[in-house]
Amino acid sequence: MSVANNENDRYLLTGWDPENPSFWQNQGKKIANRNLLISLSALLLAFCVWMLFSTVAVNLNRVGFNFTTDQLFLLTALPSLSGALLRVPYSFMVPVLGGRLWTVISTAILIVPCVWLGIAIQSPETPFWVFIIISLLCGFAGANFASSMGNISLFFPKTSQGAALGLNGGLGNLGVSVMQLLAPFVIMVPLFSFTGMQGVEQPGGETLWLANAAWFWAPLLAVATLAAWFGMNDIAGFRASFKKQLPVLKNGHLWMLGMLYLATFGSFIGFSAGFAMLAKTQFPTVDIIKLAFFGPFLGALARSAGGMLSDKLGGVRVTLINFVLMALLTLALFVTLPGSSEGSFIGFYLVFMGLFLTAGLGSGSTFQMIAVIFRQLTLDRILKNGGSQEQAQSTAVTDTAAALGFISAIGALGGFFIPKAFGTSLSLTGSPVGAMKIFFIFYAICIAITWLVYGRRRTS
Prior knowledge:
disordered N terminus; 3-stranded mixed β-sheet; Growth Hormone, Chain: A; single chain; mainly alpha; two-stranded antiparallel ribbon; globular; 17 helices; about 0% strand
């Protein structure tokens, strides 16, 4: 393995062969881990930006705005909608431009919504449509997941992909928790008062500097951009046009696995976006903002564990058990909500922590399934049609990366549907029960698909 001599390609790796044990131990592992470290750092910050409105929306009316509950839920949901749609082109960008350059570009552009949101928050006259645009721009951060996971899958051997993708995705997902943990504290401190920012005094005498929740991430994103430019690599031999990657969309397993990932990662990101707003509507006397971070924190850690468990026990087995638990927890949530009784916040919070935990675990296990299944499907297809082993290996890597990216786009839609379902259910019935019934049915369908398609017979 070597680095290309051309000055313009000095970060390009040639002869990359992670499946060779000697190469992996002597050279490959160190380079792969460096790229993984920078990638997951940039992805963690991207998730912070993606879920900004989950914290900002709860506080907008406290600083002078007058938005309805449904409008606030919409602001928390829109980043996931745009993020999901953008994951489709993002999933193809690594083979087109290279992982290093695309990580630099996709991280740098996130500074724009952070700066703009901090400015918009400071004027209560800012119209709702401006926040809609900024919310959609935050979705660019969610799209980073598709390209990041596809890129990292190129660096690691198949025996380590579950762990590597679990770490990249899990610690990246941790950005949701990091943001929700830090935001309540940074908005209480005049960090950027030198810019002329004015805080808003609250009835209790405290001052709220809500713009900090957005501006805080801008300098960190700049550092991550520089780290990607100077510290990451591209791998020679894995460039592919959009046209060469599109055939993967014809594979029926892509859509079935996409449904499973929608149920796991979609639940994680959807609950992350909507949990604080939902808790506020159901238990208005509880200050949920300082407790909301723990669910995404559990889910992010569980994602890494899900990938590692799947490497040892099999992704199908872990995913199946996980869906059963998610369905049971959804049923348990019904008895904790206010209705005929006052409900139980402690029960509500604990059950939701269980949902975050299982959603994160399932995100890791389903992603491991995707990588293993698509790799084997592609190898079998190329070899069956008379292709060489080398051609089969190369195509398998490219197809798997494209599949990972596209399925991640399907999963991200949960971040839009779940908060929107909560908002619509509350608007129509005054309760989130209707939305939770739909989630339970969906989890039951996923149990059937996992068992019947992947559990009882070999994928073909």
